[in-house]
Amino acid sequence: MKKVKHLYIIIFLAAILTYLVSAEYTKLGAHSLWWGLRQNMVFLAGVLAWFGMSFTIILSIRNGVISRWCGGLDKAYKLHKWCAISAVVLALIHWLAEKVPHWLVDAGMVAHPGELGDIVMAGWQEQLLDFGLVLAEYGLYLLIALSLVSISKKIPYHIFYYLHKAFPVVYIACAYHVMTSLFKTDWWQTPAAYLLAFVTAVAVGCALIALFQRTGSRNTSVADILHVEAAPQDIVEVTVRHRATIPMLPGQFAFVQFAHSTERHPFTLSDVNPDEKSLTFSIKKLGDYTRELAQHLLPGQRVKIEGPYGDFTFEHAGNKQLWIAGGIGVTPFMAKLKDATRKGQPLSGVEFWYFTRPDRGLTYPDYLTELCHQAGVRLKYFTVNNTENMQQHITEMKSSLNDNGVDIWFCGPDGLKKSINDTLKQQAVSIQHFHADCFSWR
């Protein structure tokens, strides 16, 4: 996640640099200090919000190069989320910095400063500018609504999915406002306007890709369902066969669109069999879509698969590996175990900790012990029901965790990940090589 944080900082440092090269701050002494500061706040917050919005849409199209820069698509979507939230907050500050002083003038609480600039606009420019202001204001309302839907996990995914499709339209409308707002400035005499125009042009292109539903089109293939099986713990196993060999690796995931739906959902591969050109997805019944999935699926149905994505591939791992899974987070490890067994390549030096809840009954898959034995992996089950219980387990594991040469691969619920990290900090255990995909998309 450090790479994502660094990219987040770089994005907004680029926005600040754009504001600085506009030399807007040099006009502070042209009017009263208060009004000058207010005008600079409008521009600074606006540029920061615009960079946040632009990279939100750029990150959304699942470009392979950008995803690799972020350390995987899951990390790119985490950055996408941070940029989106920041953009909404900064857009609201931009809007308030513009509106509140006017409200104070209308209320007679402060005097009107007169024109703050010496730019004379043509009539058509004023008309375009005014229309852009209207678009931007309504666009802000929609952005706030979209953000609330995105961060609230109580709202069903299908509502989140379809409302998200409105964002490219909102972005293009706001792009119109950004470019027409430059009519009342002298930014075109500085590199600032050209930096804004470049970022805007790239992001508008990405918005059009999303608007015309071309996201991931180059990475999409068609498969047929081979069989659907019910598994323990409300899990459905769906095996599909590709018509061509797709270079997917154990531990990766793909966006899957089944024939009965127009939605694409990300699912992790629990098996990759290149000999049979088949893929298996183990899908946990967690929401309305996944709970009803099995009753819609039949052998022979077409499936659209977009992928592969993710860097949870166990590549460049050291000789000693520690795998930690919780719940359905076992799936990428299943794929790796099956791959190693199929190739006859034992995974020496691998220890696998599988955390379960005492109320969940039979663990998934029920053949995991045998699978680990075949692959040469040491498996340990841990039952967790409270924080104290977790601390006890970590105490038992300290000898393995204190080995600086061990690579740790984690996949499981965010709550388990946080509990493990908190306990490690309390017990002063240092982790240097920790790999985890971000499977929470909202």
UniProtKB/TrEMBL annotation:
GO terms for molecular function: 2 iron, 2 sulfur cluster binding; flavin adenine dinucleotide binding; metal ion binding; oxidoreductase activity. The keyword Metal-binding applies. It is a multi-pass membrane protein. The chain crosses the membrane at residues 39-59, 79-97, 131-152, 159-179, 191-212. Residues 218-315 form the FAD-binding FR-type domain. It is found in: Membrane. Keywords: 2Fe-2S, FAD, Flavoprotein, Iron, Iron-sulfur, Membrane, Metal-binding, Oxidoreductase, Transmembrane, Transmembrane helix. Its cofactor is FAD. The keyword Nucleus does not apply. InterPro entries: FAD-bd_8 (IPR013112), FAD-bd_FR_type (IPR017927), Fe3_Rdtase_TM_dom (IPR013130), FNR_nucleotide-bd (IPR039261), MRET (IPR050415), Riboflavin_synthase-like_b-brl (IPR017938). One of its GO terms (cellular component) is membrane. This is Predicted ferric reductase. It comes from Candidatus Pantoea floridensis.
